[in-house]
Amino acid sequence: MDLIQRASKIAFNPSTYVNIESSRVESPILFYIIRIENISESRLRQLESWEELEDPNNASVDRVNKHKQGNNTKNNRVIREVDMSDDPLPHNNGSEAQIYRLLLKDCFDNYSYGYEFNDKLQFLRSRNSNGGPLPIVLGSRIIVYQGALILNGVIMLESAKCKFLGTDGVDKGFLDSLNSNIISKYANALRHELHNG
Which of 26, 53, 90, 142 is the most exposed place for a label (fewest CB within 10 A)? Predict the structure, then answer.
């Protein structure tokens, strides 16, 4: 039996670890990534980014000016194209400063959170091959190895203690349900979180 098959037979019940300050994963566990959240950025800033994707013509060019103008907002437009071919300076999109929280689901429908810990997970720093707004396709698989740190029921993800596997393509319906209308789903979830505190 290979590692993926073994890991898919192990359940992770986070409630077992909630009152335990520190523990370790006892054997490899296969998870599906259900949600990705950049916790180093405010929810308001995230919402503005998603709204820009949702409707680029209604995006705030200057958040402070838009707020000050209130209902008298000018019809600001987004610059759609900039020629960067002459620019010799490398650009950093800030991905190295970002910290991600992942909502994970094991093969037994147990949900838990995984946080980046001590180092950056490179699969969250690449661009989605299908051109989506997230760095990976939701529903992608990850194996968390034996020895990964668990703090109060939360898995702390380090490069040495996990491996990104991508999607297996077997359950297309599952992948479609997670990734269809993703911009609206994320924007609506953030609006709800901001409104309900």
Answer: 90
Domain for residue 30, yes or no?
yes
Domain count, the chain: 1
Q: pLDDT per residue over 82-128, tens digit each?
A: 555 544 433 344 556 789 999 999 999 999 999 999 889 999 987 66
The structure tokens listed for 3 are 């590692």
Distance from C-alpha of 11 to C-alpha of 28, rounded to nearest angstrom = 10
Helices 182-196 and 43-54 sit at what angle, rounded to 10 degrees?
A: 150
What residues make up the domain containing 52? 12-56+95-196
pLDDT at 68: 47
Q: d(Cα 164, Cα 144) in Å, to the nearest integer?
A: 9
